[in-house]
Structure formats: structure tokens, C-alpha cells
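User: I've been trying to design a sequence by hand for this structure and keep getting stuck. Would you show me what you'd pick, starting by listing the structure so we're on the same page?

Assistant: Good idea, let's start from the same input. This is the structure you sent:
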């Protein structure tokens, strides 16, 4: 991957501000044209806002380069983030692409059918999802991460490859949900154009664990019972029970 060229173009784009601020801004501006708007006027206004970016030419060149490097389900955004932004902060070293491909081959292989679901509860920049898409890009891909920057990287990767599914900004362990992004495509002039919808209601997510609505279960025992006692006294010495 031509990461050196990408680093050079990005540093020129970020001149005058911190690299982290420039990177998060890059993600937001890249996502702006992909968002699904309610009306044509809202979409036109978003595109006009895009054109008014103070470095619009550099932004377009940078996004174009990222798109070119993303061919064959690569992850140039993740490489750029690791080398220029995170530097391993909070352990943010993403799984190398060959390892992701190996794990995908072991777990799903070539048997992945269309409309089947793939979920990565700690997706980072979405490399596991991209590796799975190499076997069948028509599956449904779901990813979640605690870091919103990672979620936006994964979302951009989903959109650049026209993958459908969801990216959720949430704590997978505690099931605390913050916001989510659903990706889909729409057929326009023979092209499947990708777009996303942002939402904040956890009930709309396919990743957030919904509470179970179970009927009240009656206890199996209605009478108290005597606990079983050991036939020989236990003296607390290790191995005495054997």
C-alpha cells in the first residue's frame, strides 16, 4: 500500500492544525455526501457546504487517493490512523490485513452466502468486515466499537466498498449504546450508490442487545429441602476428597 504517499498528502492537508483534529475532520467531511437526506434541498445544501471547505481541492484529492487505495477491500484509513494519529495509544494497533484474511478463511471460508450476517463486536476500522467481504460482498456486515473515530473509519470503509449493514458506536461489554449508522445502497442510473442513515435510538440497532420479554417462570420447587451432607468430614486439607 502506498501509505507514504497518503501520509504526505494528508500532512499537507493538515497543515496549520493538529493531525488528530485534521483526521476527525476528514472523516466528517468524507461522510457528508454519503448521508441520506430527507429532501433534495437538504442534499443540495450539504453538497454546497462540501464545496465551501477552505481546502476543498486538497480534500477532494485526499479522498480520491483514499478511494483508490481502498480497492480490493484495503484499509488505508486504518494505516493512516495508526501511523499518524494513534501511535498505539490505548492499544490501538489494528489487526494486520493478512491475519484478518486468515481468520475469515478459517471461520467462514467460501461457504459465506448472500444475506448471511457477519458481526465484529470490536471492529476498529472494520478490517475483519472487509476481509469477510472478499468471500461474499453481498452479505450483511455489522460492527461495533467504543471509539467513535474507529466507528467512522469503519463506516467510510463500508461505504467505499458499497457494503450493507450497520456500524454502532457502543460499549459491547456493558451494552451501552451511543449512536449508530446503517448503510445501504440505492440503484441510480445502473449504479448501486451507497448511503448511510444515522440514528440514536438503540431499539433500531441490530447489534444492541434488546431486553428479553419472558413470561414469569414459576419455581420448580415449592417445599424447602435438606441440603446433602458429606459422608465423611472435610478437614480442609487439599486432596483429602480424593
Amino acid at each position: 500500500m502506498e501509505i507514504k504517499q497518503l501520509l504526505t498528502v494528508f500532512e499537507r492537508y493538515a497543515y496549520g492544525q493538529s493531525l488528530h483534529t485534521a483526521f476527525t475532520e476528514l472523516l466528517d467531511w468524507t461522510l457528508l455526501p454519503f448521508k441520506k437526506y430527507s429532501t433534495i434541498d437538504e442534499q443540495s445544501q450539504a453538497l454546497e457546504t462540501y464545496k465551501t471547505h477552505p481546502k476543498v481541492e486538497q480534500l477532494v484529492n485526499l479522498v480520491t487517493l483514499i478511494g483508490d487505495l481502498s480497492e480490493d477491500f484495503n484499509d488505508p484509513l486504518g494505516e493512516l490512523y495508526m501511523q499518524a494519529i494513534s501511535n498505539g495509544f490505548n492499544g490501538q494497533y489494528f489487526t494486520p490485513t493478512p491475519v484478518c484474511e486468515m481468520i475469515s478463511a478459517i471461520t467462514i471460508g467460501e461457504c459465506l452466502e448472500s444475506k448471511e450476517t457477519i458481526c465484529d463486536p470490536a471492529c476498529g476500522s472494520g478490517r475483519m468486515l472487509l476481509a469477510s467481504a472478499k468471500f461474499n460482498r453481498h452479505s450483511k456486515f455489522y460492527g461495533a466499537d467504543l471509539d467513535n473515530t474507529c466507528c467512522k473509519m469503519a463506516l467510510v470503509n463500508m461505504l467505499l466498498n458499497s457494503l450493507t449493514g450497520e456500524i454502532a458506536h457502543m460499549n459491547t461489554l456493558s451494552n451501552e449504546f451511543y449512536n449508530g449508522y446503517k448503510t445501504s445502497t440505492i440503484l441510480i442510473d445502473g449504479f448501486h450508490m451507497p448511503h448511510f442513515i444515522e440514528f440514536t435510538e438503540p431499539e433500531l440497532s441490530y447489534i444492541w442487545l434488546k431486553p428479553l420479554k419472558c413470561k414469569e417462570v414459576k419455581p420448580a420447587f415449592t417445599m424447602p429441602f435438606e441440603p446433602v451432607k458429606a459422608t465423611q468430614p472435610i478437614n480442609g486439607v487439599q486432596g483429602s476428597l480424593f
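That's my pick for every position. To get oriented when you compare it with your attempt: Residues 125 and 154 are 4 Å apart (CA to CA). The first strand starts at residue 117 and ends at 120.
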